[in-house]
C-alpha cells in the first residue's frame, strides 16, 4: 500500500488511461481503479493486478484467484460491467487472448468474505460453444467408472475426464494423473485453502476434490467435461457458477451392488462395509429435490449405456457430427491493436500498416453469449469478423475507445 505514483496523478478519472510500459488502468465504480500489467513478482510471469482505492488514497494488492494469463508485452482492456473487465492480450492467438478479470461477481464476493481480503479472479475466455459438463454420481461399485470409460472410448474427441485429486492410496491399475492425482492430505488441504478446488468432499474417510485446473484442461481442448464425483460434490457444483448436467446412477438392488463391489476386488472387507453404509445415504440423497436431472439404473450394462447416450443426445447421427467436431479457427491478435465497447459488443481492431490488406482486421465479440466465469473458463464466446465502415462498424457509431499498450 502507498501513494499513487506520479504516473497516474491527475489521470485516474480517465476511463481509458494509457500508461508507460505495459500497464493498463480501468476505473470500476467511482472509488476503485484496477491497474494491471508488468509481472506480479520475479518468480511469476503473469499480468499482475493492483487496486487503487481513491477514497482512501491507497494501493491494495488483491488475492488473485484462478489460472492467470501468461505475461504479455502489451494488452488492451475495457470495463464490461460492474462485475468484470475484459483484457485482450496482444501478440497472441485467439485461443489465449481473451481474459476476464472478475472484480465483483458472486464468486469473487463470496471469496472476499471468506478470505477477508480484496479479491479478484481471472477466467480465460473460450471461443465457441462448449456443451455443459456432465456430473455423474452414484454409490461405490454401481458402475460409474465403467460407463464413463465406455463413453470416452466411443467418443474420444468429444469427452474429457476431469481428473480429481484424492488422498486415498492408488489401486493396482490406477495411474497418477490419469485416474486421479494422488496427493498428500496436507498438500490438498493447502490447495483447498488457496481456492484451487471447484469442490471437495470427505468420502469414505478420504479427501476428494475437483481442481479448477482439472476442468479447465478439458475445456481448453474443446471437449465436454465428465466429472465422477460424490453427492456432496454434486451439491457444491450445483451451487457454483459451473452449469452442468447431473446424473445419478442407481444399482438394480443393494445385493447386486454388494456383489459388484466384492467382485471388483479392490477394497478390504472393512472398506467394503464402509462403502456399503455410505451407499445407503447416497441412494437416499439421489432424490433430493433439484439436485439430479436424470436417474439411470445400471442393471444390464449395455442397456444402461444406451440410455446414458440417449439422454446426452448421442445417437448414430450425433456420433458422426461429434467425431468430426473441430476447434474454432484461430486468428492472431497483434501486439498493437485496439478494442472498443459498443453496447453488448466488443470490437477488436487488429489493423496495422502491414495488415491493411487483410480482410480479417476487425472482429466483434458478442458479450451476450458469455457463460460461466471464475473459477474456470468463461465459455461460449461468439467472435466473428466484421467489415469496418466510415462511421464505425456496419453503421453502428463507436462509443468508447480503448487503449493499446506496447
Ligand atoms: N466430491 C468428490 N467426489 C469424488 C471426486 N472424485 C471421486 N469422487 C467420489 O469419491 C467416491 C469414491 O471414489 P473411489 O475411491 O474412486 O471409489 P469407487 O467409487 O468405488 O470407484 C466416488 O463416489 C466418487 O464419485 C471428487 O473430485 N470430488
Ligand atoms: N451393469 C453391470 N453389470 C455387472 N457388473 C457391472 C456392471 N457395471 C459395472 N460392473 C462391474 O462392477 C464393478 C464396479 O464398477 P465400477 O465402474 O468400478 O463402479 P464405480 O466406478 O461406480 O465404483 C466393476 O467390476 C465393473 O466391471
From TrEMBL:
Gene3D superfamilies attached to this UniProt entry: Guanylate Kinase phosphate binding domain, Kelch-type beta propeller, P-loop containing nucleotide triphosphate hydrolases
SMART domains named among the record's database cross-references: GuKc (SM00072)
Molecular function GO terms recorded: ATP binding; GMP kinase activity
Enzyme Commission code(s) on record: 2.7.4.8
First-tier enzyme category under EC: transferase
Classification via PROSITE patterns: GUANYLATE_KINASE_1, GUANYLATE_KINASE_2
Catalytic activity: GMP + ATP = GDP + ADP
Keyword Zinc carried by entry: no
Domain of life the protein comes from: Eukaryota
Keywords per UniProt: ATP-binding, Kinase, Nucleotide-binding, Transferase
Ranges where the Guanylate kinase-like domain occurs: 131-313
NCBIfam families according to UniProt: guanyl_kin
PANTHER family hit by this protein: GUANYLATE KINASE (PTHR23117:SF13), GUANYLATE KINASE-RELATED (PTHR23117)
Membership in a protein family: Belongs to the guanylate kinase family.
Name of the protein described by the UniProt record: Guanylate kinase 1
Organism: Abeliophyllum distichum
